[in-house]
Amino acid sequence: MIIDSAEVIVTSPDRNFVTLKLTTDDGLTGLGDATLNGRELAVVAYLKDHVVPLLLGRDAHRIEDTWQFLYRSAYWRRGPVTMAAIAAVDTALWDLKGKAAGMPVYQLLGGASRTGLLAYGHASGRDLPELFDSIRAHQAQGYKAIRVQTGVPGLKSIYGIASNATYEAMDGVRYDHEPAQRGSLPAEEDWDTRSYLRHVPTVFEAVRGEFGPELPLLHDAHHRLTPVQAAQLGKALEPYDLFWLEDVTPAENQEALRLVRRHTTTPLAIGEIFNTVWDYQQIIREQLIDYVRSAVTHTGGISHLKKVLDYAAQYQIKSGMHGPTDISPVGMAAALHLGLSVHNFGIQEYMRHGARTDQVFQQSFTWQDGLLHPGDRPGLGVELDLDEAGKYPYVQAYLPFNRLADGTVHDW
Ligand code: KDG
Ligand code: MG
Question: Which of 98, 295, 335, 348 might form a disulfide with 322, Cβ 3.0–4.6 angstroms?
């Protein structure tokens, strides 16, 4: 099974996606997701100029060897662009191996450890009535766990969601396909941490009052807090029994989490912007987190994220793979195969893609009773319709950024 051709496909049905397609001498095709939200074309160039020429003529069965070759031979290691490119190759090779074996990828990873994957969706609203409607609409769609984000009084944007997001109603659920907004400049949003810290516990008190104690609730602080503010928030939210509190502090400073941990037992999830096992070394060893947020797409592919999760398993830390709409259906399928197979699966983030995206990427996963399953087609179970993809050329889009009232740039 020799790699004959490697094509990088950019398409923007509801948002930008970058896909690597490998074709072998025996006519099999494998897909890998290389989408890096807001920096898509950097990965396209990395793949086209520096990776594709190295792949032609290689044995597609040698997944681990190819991974190590791409990682070590570049000399320059880690980083989101490199690791998204390597992830795409790795994922496409798993897809090929599955197709060659006539088995879904999860079977090659050791088989199913469960019957389906618990998934959470994103409920949001400018105020409580809108938030409650959004939670109910998610429940009606079958979601058994829900992330809660709301507007903060005095701030213009709904926190955690782009203010001008293209909302598209699907079965009554509003979807923010784009925190990344189309245009040549990132949108500016406003932020005030003290208002946020005062407001969020009141939201969770109201949600628990309305929806009761059972519903697993999650919240994302999107790197906006200092360690002591994160500790305050975790403590304030303890009565509402969160499934997790995500990205409380900027992830670069891992020691910050020691302080947070000393003050709260609210479970912590971190890592959607991490890209290697080395980013997790300290926070897993010191048990500073409870969930690993990395996506296959941004963490070197199925092979590398499995290593992270196996390491995490030694400390009873579970998976919580990143699954917003900027992970393509190919990246989502990879997450589902990995999640189904590892023992320490925790929860899967699942925001539905738009109708155009679903036409470009034909998928075979199922969503039933709040559980996802990757399906049993050989490989990943996703095929890319090139004609459909060709209808939607790349559109420049950036994630927003924040400024405080005095004009200081703040984490978004
Ligand atoms: O590309 C960035 C988005 O994926 C991010 O804003 C979404 O934080 C996010 C989440 O938890 O899904
Ligand atoms: Mg997040």
Answer: 295
* Residue 343 is among the residues annotated as catalytic for this protein: no
Res 161: pLDDT: 61
pLDDT at 168: 59
Which domains, from first to last, does the chain contain? 3-103 (3.30.390.10), 117-378 (3.20.20.120)
pLDDT of residue 164: 45
Select which of 46, 159, 196, 280 is catalytic.
Answer: 159
For ligand 1, atom 9, which residue shows the shortest CA distance?
A: 324
DSSP letter at 280 equals: G
Does residue 222 have an active-site annotation? yes
Cβ neighbors of 363 (< 8 A, separation 6 or more) are 329, 332, 333, 381, 382
Per-residue confidence (pLDDT) for residue 160, from 0 to 100: 58
Reduced to 3 states (helix: H, G, I; strand: E, B; else coil), residue 230 is helix
Query: In which element (H, E) is residue 150 found?
Result: strand 145-150
Choose the residue to mutate in 146, 178, 219, 272 for probing ligand 1, maximizing ligand atoms within 8 Å of C-beta. 272
How much is the pLDDT for 369? Answer: 93
> Out of 138, 222, 223, 322, which one is annotated catalytic?
222
223 alpha carbon – ligand 2 mean position (Å): 9
List of the chain residues with pLDDT < 70: 158-178
